[in-house]
Amino acid sequence: MNDLSLQMKLLERRVISSLPQAQTKLTFFPSGSVWLDVRFDGRLLYLRSHANGWFGVDELLPEDGGMEQGDRFNFDSFAGAADQLIRLVTGVESVAKRERRAV
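Predicted structure:
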């Protein structure tokens, strides 16, 4: 298991401790990328590692039309992305008024 995989597993535990009713799914890719999906109350939040080394965090909203629109939050570090996901999961921050940045 690589370092990113371990970090994502630890983040998954952190999400579940913050929001016990959440359902999470980790997806590991041969490229080394890892995706963490968090579902609760009809919402889907995610953190994606991208092949070029950056991380995207967002919530899929019905009006978005899918993930191909880009991520609203982009980070060069895993720590920044993980903190953003926790802020969204706990309701500290919302994506409602945030524009997507094209990939």
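Summary: The chain has one domain: 3-89.
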